[in-house]
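Why this split exists: single-chain examples teach little about how molecules sit against one another. For that reason, every record in the complexes split bundles all components of an assembly together and asks for one structure covering all of them. Below is a record exactly as it appears in the raw files.
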Amino acid sequence: MSVWPNARAVPPEAPIPVFVDAPIRESVIQARGLGLTFATDGHRTVALTDVDLSIRKGEFVSLIGPSGCGKTTLLRLIADLQQASTGTLLVNGTTPAEARRQRAYGYVFQAPALYPWRSLERNVMLPLEVMGLPLAERKRRAARVLDLVGLADFRKRFPWQLSGGMQQRASIARALSFEPNLLLMDEPFGALDEITRDGLTLHLHQLWRRTGLTAVFVTHSVLEAVFLSTRIVVMSSRPGRVVAVIDSDLPAERDLDVRETSRFLAVAHAVRAALREGHGDA
Amino acid sequence: MRDRLSRALPLLCVLAILIAVWFAGSVAMNWDQAQDLADEDATWSDIAQATLALDRPLLPTPDQVASEMIRSMFGYPPTSPRSLVFHAGVTAWAAIVGFGIALLAGMALAIGIVHVRTLDRALMPWLIASQAVPVLAIAPMVVVVLGNVGLTGVLPKALIAGWLSFFPVTTGLVKGLRSSDPMQRDLMRTYSATEAQVFVKLRWPAAMSFLFPSMKVAAPLALVGAIVAELPTGAQAGLGARLLTGSYYGQTPQIWAALFMAAFLAMLAVALVDLTQALAAYARGGRL
Amino acid sequence: MTTLLLLGSLLTGGVVLALLARNDRPAFRIATPIVFGLLVLWLWQIVCTGYEVPLVLLPPPATIAAAVVNHLPTLAADFRQTFLRAVIPGWAIGSSAGLLAAIALDASPFLRRGVLPLGSLVSAMPIVGIAPIMVMWFGFDWQSKAAVVVVMTFFPMLINAAAGLGQTGAMEGDLMSTYAAGYGQTLLKLRLPFALPFVFNALKLNATLALIGAIVAEFFGTPIVGMGFRISTQAARLNLDVVWAEIVMAALAGSISFALLALLERVVTFWHPSYH
């Protein structure tokens, strides 16, 4: 049943597009049979099972699903914050641990996680300090990346002097300051109100288009996933697994109004159908 | 069970290391004295053995302290002034009386501060500021002055012990009485409850979770106050007096024994507060 | 006559305080305790002089003020001996040692589980009691008092710093992992700054403990100078005005140290939520 008056009706039995395997040499992330099981207090919990996924350079891939579906776990496996128990995972053609050592990706958490005793500028310089870059270079990169997110005027301010949305933008800037080719984001806009979220979602999309990064984006929100992504990975819980992968073919130049077009709604509908299907299986 | 063992293991390890270090320390620190007292032809191991059995060692060994404690605790009847139990009892009694005074006065003052605005504004800043002041410094004066007026014995010691433990009890209780959720106080207003009813039904129960941690801090303080109060006039009885006489006559095992007894009393005090807290929690369904 | 003055002052003072307490503005909030303090001093003065309370019982504030002025050289010497030679070095060494120990413990969870319970146990004990032992080891002079202070300040710092180092958020730790930052870098850039509020908490607590420790340690015996020495000997001779003068000096020293530390804390941990 269509909610939007202008949309053309979409047949409810529209086939869900199937994921096509990509050649290895083009993949930034390659997962095969990936799984994570851990034991707590005698119980075995299957966080993730049998995940096959290939993410190519320049893609924006969203991981969406209900709580406990393993989407955050998958992200953390890619980031080497956790280690898989089965399967293989290649990041930038090497192991996640090595990729982490090479500082291949920037990570954005659900909360800004900025250091309150550092100004925005110094927060953004933090990873550069850890990597041992000289001061002049650090300042240059920090200025560039703060400009990219539109916070250049606030670089001397402290995090607690800024709104939640601005802090999260600063957190994204920090993730980009060392120019990784991969951006991993774990529900970065989850704690913000809807109006701020809309603004940041558009902002992130424009950022992605300007930098040509590969992005993996965990979210609860179907609208965000469809707006931002080139591909949407729908997951479900108990056990955590991939249910479907849906291609999104929205025009490259887009603004928030695209959310009311029929193409957008078709993709969103497909995602929701997949979510329901995953939920029904559980 | 395995969990308890794994929690106790690090503690036991550390204790074992400490005791080993203590023995080594005894050997090291008593070495000179043992060497002086030894014969011409004594070997290193002879001297080392001697360090562990001196009469007036610089650092008595754990077993020397333990045997002194056992001797002075069980070797004399508890009423004898040579018994460590007697001295512990004297100090403990002063601390208990002082703590009791502190509780009563602290409760009265805290209730006053929370309900009477003038008291709050005039007195509370002084209470907070007093935390920076070394209150124990007044101990000699209080003992001497009260002695002059004819008040000797337990009272001056109890007053100093009470004075020390009064501050944490009062500040903790004020915080606790004010800790009740504003939403719950609003609810009481909708019932047109009187101040007294609000106090009994809401503020006091809410204050319990602040009162017990404060008591845990205040009880050892009362003990310290009682001990220190025994020092100035060269008192005859109590753990403080024992520490003093031990140091005058160079009886190191006696000093250490008195110190360990004081430490034990402090542990006992904290354990008693914990027990009271557990009982109070039990009466309230398991959580404070 | 005195009774009339006493009752009149009490009444007036009470009314003034009640009126001051009604107002919420910051100036009034500072004025009320100050007025209260002055009222107490005034009542003290008239009770002592009016009822002719013997000096060996309670000297009036005016006499104490005079004693402070008259005995300034002695007070200064005592201050130097106790505060400058025992309190400050002891506080600095004990607090630093406690902090270093907490950092060392941070590297070994096993040791931490063993040492911390012991540490909190020891900090509840009457540590001033080790004063006679310290005298045996270090002599009668300021070194033994400083040693007592070192032991007294070590444990509160150890416990507080360990707590501070332990409460770094998981998210911030993960962030450092994504930068492949080493243990040392994470400690220096993340966990130590986060632990600073706890460290300052301990520093302020230790300031009070240090002063008490040094003074009380002198009750156990000391050469012929020092705040604790002066208090106990002059009290025995019933020269209460000198005793009060020393107490006033100790109170001032304690309050000023505390205030300076609070100021430093505000500057260093300006970012803490409690300040906004």
